[in-house]
Amino acid sequence: MKTKYHSLGNLWRYFLHRMVSEKGDVDYIARGWALGMFIGCLIPMGLQLVIAVPLSFPLKGSKIGAVFGTFLTNPLTVWFIYPAQCWLGERLLGQGHNLDTIRTLLKDVVQEQSFAALGALSGQLLLAFFIGGLLLALVLTPLTYCLVRASVLRYRKVREKLRQHRLMRRA
Questions:
Q1: How far apart are CA 148 and CA 145, in angstroms?
Q2: Residue 162: is it exposed, middle or buried by C-beta count within 10 angstroms (0-12/13-18/19+)?
Q3: What pLDDT is recorded for position 119?
């Protein structure tokens, strides 16, 4: 059964359209997406939305952006992001697991997606997960903010030019 978003390209275009066409202040939209990216990098799947949406209220960010921003980690990407995040955290902690060992250790967590599986990991690997996630969040959050803000501004500028062009054609 084909859906409207049967390919990754169509899904990407949908997210992009939702981002640039959202109503509200440009900074409001960018703040929401950046918040979602921060939470998506730092918090394990399952808790991301529970944290991102309520935080978007006091931080005055887009709720839609906060939700979509967390989609960085999803069932397709966690197979790559979580091991890389742990590997990065281990390097910062001076630990020695290689990427294949980390993938094996995280396999149950990713497959089961349960807190019991997460709790079964060693404390050192959990610490590496959060430290690696924090580093990714510190890099990707401002990048997301700037890219979303620029994209929304560009979209609105093009849309306004088209509106002006249509008005001039009618006159």
A1: 5
A2: exposed
A3: 72
